[in-house]
């Protein structure tokens, strides 16, 4: 389906993009520090399910609507921003407690997964990224364009999932050293809330260009 040179170029470009610090990594780290390794991994999984959905959207042309319609872009953007700010305020309102590692997190892994999927879907910047990035590696002469979009999106999501899982594992080891510290419990709760609110504000200020 893909020429070897094209696939290698795509993988290298994807790795460079993934390694650049961004809001997804910040959210995974914040969730890991706040609720543990499983929470961080489930957040990474949820974000990349959102990535796959955007890849499918790009394949059927929905991303083009966001690129050409200011109203559609604004609606998705502000819904996503409001959702992130809401989650951040919710985290700041919770009363943090130092606790042993076996205690239950404030949110279950399934809840964090669902929140991460919603966060990924409600980010129009991802849709525009796919619209600009993926077509460079799609060749109609090499088979189904839809299938090529899905394969490239899945490969990007898989690479990103691996990297963010590694971040979650590293962050969870650091978290274990501080799990019983009350001051750290306060800090991690505030940090999670601040990261979410910051991501929401960042999303609200995005421009289509």
Comma- or semicolon-separated keywords:
9 helices; 209 residues; 78% helix; mainly alpha
Strand content of the residues, in percent?
under 5%
Secondary-structure element sequence? HHHHHHHHH
Flag low-confidence runs.
97-105
Overall helicity: over 70%
Q: Which term fits the overall shape?
A: globular
Let me know the largest β-sheet.
none
Mean pLDDT: 77
Annotation, overall tally of beta strands = 0
The N- to C-terminal Cα distance equals: 32 Å
Radius of gyration: 18 Å
Helix and strand composition category: mainly alpha
What would your notes on this structure say?
By secondary structure, the chain is mainly alpha-helical. The protein is 78% helix and 0% strand. The protein contains nine helices and no strands. The protein has helices spanning 4-19, 23-35, 37-60, 62-68, 70-93, 109-121, 124-133, 145-178, 182-204. Helix 3 (37-60) crosses helix 7, helix 3 packs antiparallel against helix 8 (145-178) and helix 4 (62-68) crosses helix 5. The longest helix has 34 residues, at 145-178. The chain starts with a helix and ends in a 5-residue tail after the last helix. Residues 97-105 have low confidence and may be disordered.
């Amino acid at each position: 389906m893909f020429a070897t040179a094209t696939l290698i170029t795509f993988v290298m470009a994807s790795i460079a993009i993934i390694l650049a610090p961004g809001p997804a990594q910040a959210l995974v780290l914040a969730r890991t520090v706040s609720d543990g390794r499983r929470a961080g991994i489930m957040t990474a999984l949820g974000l990349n399910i959102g990535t796959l959905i955007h890849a499918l959207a790009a394949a059927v042309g929905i991303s083009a609507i966001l690129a050409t319609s200011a109203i559609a872009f604004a609606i998705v953007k502000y819904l996503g921003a409001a959702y992130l700010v809401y989650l951040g305020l919710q985290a700041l309102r919770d009363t943090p407690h130092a606790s042993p590692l076996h205690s239950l997190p404030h949110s279950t892994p399934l809840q964090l997964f669902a929140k991460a999927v919603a966060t990924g879907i409600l980010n129009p910047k991802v849709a525009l990224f796919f619209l600009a990035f993926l077509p460079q590696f799609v060749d109609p002469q090499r088979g189904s364009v839809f299938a090529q979009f899905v394969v490239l999106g899945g490969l990007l999501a898989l690479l990103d999932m691996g990297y963010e899982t590694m971040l979650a594992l590293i962050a969870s080891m650091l978290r274990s050293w501080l799990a019983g510290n009350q001051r750290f419990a306060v800090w991690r709760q505030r940090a999670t809330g601040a990261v979410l609110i910051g991501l929401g504000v960042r999303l609200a200020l995005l421009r289509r260009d």
